[in-house]
Amino acid sequence: MRLRTTLLLGLLTGCATPASSSKTDAPAPAEAAPSSSEPAPAAGKIDLKALSARELAPLPKQKVSAPDGSFTGEVEAAGAPTLQPGEELFVLSVPLGTGSPLTCFVYSGPVDAGGSIYRLVEMAGQRTELTRVRTTDIRLIGESPAVYAEAEYLVNVPRGKAAGLAKMMVYPHDRLPLVCTHDELGYSESFKRVTSGLAASLQSPGETPPAPRYFELNVIRVQGHPVGFEKRVMRDAAGGGRLTEVESSLFFPRSLKELSVQDTVSSELSDKDGRLVARDYARASNGALDIQMALKQVQGREYHYEGTHLGKALNGDFTAPADLATEPGTARLVRERLLPGKDPELTLHYYMPSANPVAPTQQVLRKGTAGSRELTVEMGPLKATLTVDAQGMTEKLMTPMGGTELVQERVQARGTP
Questions:
Q1: How far apart are CA 402 and CA 117, in angstroms?
Q2: pLDDT for 262-298, tens place per residue?
Q3: Using CA atoms, how far apart are residues 235 and 202, in angstroms rounded to an integer?
Q4: Which of 23, 182, 275, 358 lies at 20 to 30 Å from 224 by C-alpha?
């Protein structure tokens, strides 16, 4: 399976600013240097609000090139960036003209967005007193999402407490994954601009992979705040079938100081009629793999499954009550049967290891008001509302969650499913 959590090498480096001291050169967290760019305190106090609002004007762009020729790119910088090789990665240090450099890791293998953010926050919490952790943005850069997060913290210093802000970015690109950090109050929008530009510029030699027949990215929000993404790619398969790959990450606040994260990847092979042939699924929670299942069609509606689910090894067979549904098959039924009103509802059976690893899970789709593309979906006690496009693909999904609502909305789509 593609999913694996990569432990980031190195610690956050940066500058904490005294929160209740008249001393401006108080030491920062371990292995960090105090900022030389902070203004002198006014009336014996530092203006934390002003420091937090600092931003950088655009800087000159500097070329970046891996010594082994594995990638090239460019990044805004106040001086020449340095690039050091590590184990299956390169460490890029970028001077910004502030008290702390931008540090980025360019990996040779895949990274998981949730696990990477979780590990960065965990490392920051080992050295500081975290006061607030949150995702701040999820955006599409090229063909991959980029996740931004911030961790506000305090550290003890001789004259009181020092406040700091660790900014994080994870870009789980298929070929050139990137993780960046900057540990200094302020520069939040500048951090996004500089790292987005770097990610967009990265190139590797060799042939560009063929474009998929369909691509989409969905962003998941709660009360308007980004808490996850879902990326979907469909490719042609032998005999008129489809290969659908879905990658998703969720970042739910457990408290002001903690995030609970989940990374999921799945691949689904369907035949020309949209029936399931095989499915692989893996999920990691807080960076630890907890589900890894594989399903293969034996004959007709007979299937064999094997893998691990929440620490338990599973291996067996089942006979589905109906043809197992797939994403392209469902889209076809929605646009050809449900939207035109030929069927008032569709009862479908999916293999969903997170819900049931040893048997299919039933879903019921019902059409909303006449002339609309709004549907309702029921899966046991769970109910949600979704809007589909003319191809039968989901544009927006709204799921009740406690006293609020989880909203998954498509931000970009290309091609035909």
A1: 25
A2: 999 999 999 999 999 999 999 999 999 999 999 999 9
A3: 24
A4: 182
